[in-house]
Amino acid sequence: MSGLFDVAGRSVVVTGATGALGRAASLALSSVGAKVTLAAGSAKDLDAVAEEISARGGSCVTVPRRPETLADAEAISAAAVEAFGRIDGLVVASGTNLPKMIGDMATEEWEQVMDANVRGSWLMCKSVGARMIAQGEGGKVVLVSSVRGRLGTARGYSAYCPSKSAVDGLTRSLACEWGPHKINVNAIGPTVFRSKLTEWMFREDEKGSASRIQSLPRIPLGRLGEPEDLAGILIYLMAPASDFCTGQVIYVDGGYTAG
Ligand SMILES: NC(=O)c1ccc[n+]([C@@H]2O[C@H](COP(=O)([O-])OP(=O)(O)OC[C@H]3O[C@@H](n4cnc5c(N)ncnc54)[C@H](OP(=O)(O)O)[C@@H]3O)[C@@H](O)[C@H]2O)c1
Description:
By secondary structure, the protein is α/β, with parallel strands linked by helices.
């Protein structure tokens, strides 16, 4: 039992590593000994996360690229292999949202959300999966979905909800395709977590309080998520403890989807 949650020495790629959830994933995994390849568009933001990891004694490299094309995904994978010799895990935490009512949303804006959330996930899986299969020792893939992959809302999510439903479908599909290679593919489905985009919902002002009065009664645990709430599930999904768990969307939502 002692090695159940051991991820020490594993090489893990994290996209969107500068975002609220990607940064939390990178800090959590590096704090338990994983060697992390951090990818995102902004080199400056990446350096800040890398400094935090190094200051805590962790090991990481940075790649200033978003997974927008297969060449980007390949460059991110190649950087991980160059730095750490192999890839054992992937966390796709890059993504975006652009809430707009369907009547006001341009086709290009819808595509922007789908590209960031679905195409980016698919490209990273394609690139990293090929390397894991070639390595022949299995692997762990975690995609970041959302409770909005399962539940609709009237808030202008006609791009975001289907993008996350597609991530759920990709999770199940690749779990089936890669089972014979012992590559586990799972997704996490967070509810609202603190991030730059959602910070206003946590504030003690009128708008923040009104939003919480509306949303908290639907969350049995009675609060919104903090990035650190993801640490446990991510370590589990990267560790031997999850070896028989694949194709699942695991909701980290304080019970929101239970009610
Ligand atoms: N926070 C929440 O409440 C919440 C809840 C459920 C699900 N999620 C999901 O979790 C993931 C991360 O969310 P977050 O809250 O951490 O967001 P965030 O803080 O805004 O971070 C987004 C990350 O993705 C990168 N990024 C931004 N736009 C991108 C694009 N168009 N294409 C590729 N990469 C892009 C950003 O870096 P660069 O701009 O430098 O590339 C950043 O590293 C997303 O898929 C989101 O849908 C978040």
